[in-house]
Amino acid sequence: MKGNPTTDLKNPVSDLNINMNTPPQNQNKDTAILKQAPDSGIPNAKNSAAPERQNQTGEPTILIIEDDKDIRDVVDTLLTHKGYKILQAEDGISALKIINEDIDLIILDVMMPGMSGIEVCREIRKNYNMPILFLTAKSSDEDKTEGFSAGGDDYLTKPFSETELTARVIALMRRYQVYRGKEKDSSGETYLIAEGLKISEQFNAVWKNGLQIDLTDIEYRMLRMFMKHRNRIFSIKTIYETIWDEPYFYSSNNTVMVHIRKLRKKIEDDPQNPTYIRTEWGRGYLFAK
């Protein structure tokens, strides 16, 4: 925990550092789980039920897939206080049974018994495009590459703070709600077209030679940006800050390259020799059609 929960804070949970690596029963009681500050009105996530949800039409819904109940309850409580409707699943099998189009975001633990988070992500991507935020104790580039290749949209390494979690959730949710097709009126739909490739400017719909291609939200936004600015070279920094809407760090290079590779596999005839999205070595990428 970054601070003492008993200090006088306007928001007693705003700077919590949630340590997910050590089992709660072995952690210091102040860092194992969200505690109630004196007179704060914020409930203890372990000992109190989450506040009653409004269940209003259109309320953003988040599914937490995590085998550790204490972690699920902490994240549930934090995000419930931000106004989200929360669903929980303790493993991948049960999660796949309840996933539907009404879920706006999935928070997915990587290391789970039975079906791993990577396997669950691959199954989800066969039918759905809602953003997926991985939670993991692994932080190597190889681990992140595997997650992005499976269809993940972002990574949050354990331990993390409540501020980090909510910032990622808000950014992913905003992008998805703005660009997903079911929230758009297609009566005034316009398209970008380039040699067999057609993309809607209003929502995530892409066709290659007349056949529809399923893209994730990140892939769609990236392709739309390229096609709207043909022959313009975009640096990795510009791509990351534009598409992810977050500050660029050197580690972001790998994130962008993985998504470019995934996008090429879906739109290029020969991904090893791309003709749509070309690499300009030392400078970035451009749409060359």
Break the fold down into its secondary structure elements and pairings.
Layout: E1 17-18, H1 29-32, E2 61-65, H2 69-80, E3 85-89, H3 92-98, E4 105-109, H4 117-124, E5 132-136, H5 141-150, E6 154-157, E7 160-161, H6 162-179, E8 191-194, E9 197-200, E10 206-208, E11 211-213, H7 217-228, H8 236-243, H9 252-267, E12 277-280, E13 284-287
Parallel strand pairs: 2-3, 2-4, 4-5, 5-6
Antiparallel strand pairs: 1-7, 8-9, 9-10, 10-11, 12-13
| Helix fraction by DSSP (H/I, runs of at least 4) | 25-40%
Name the average pLDDT.
77
The profile of the biggest β sheet is:
5 strands, parallel
Which assembly state applies to the chains in this document?
Answer: single chain
Task: Report the end-to-end length measured between terminal Cα atoms.
Answer: 51 Å
> What is the ordering of alpha helices and beta strands?
EHEHEHEHEHEEHEEEEHHHEE
Strand content: 15-25%
Low-confidence stretches: 1-57, 181-186
Q: What is the molecular shape?
A: globular
Number of strands: 13
Report the structural category: alpha/beta
Cα Rg: 20 Å
Numbering strands along the chain, what is their spatial order in the largest sheet? 3-2-4-5-6
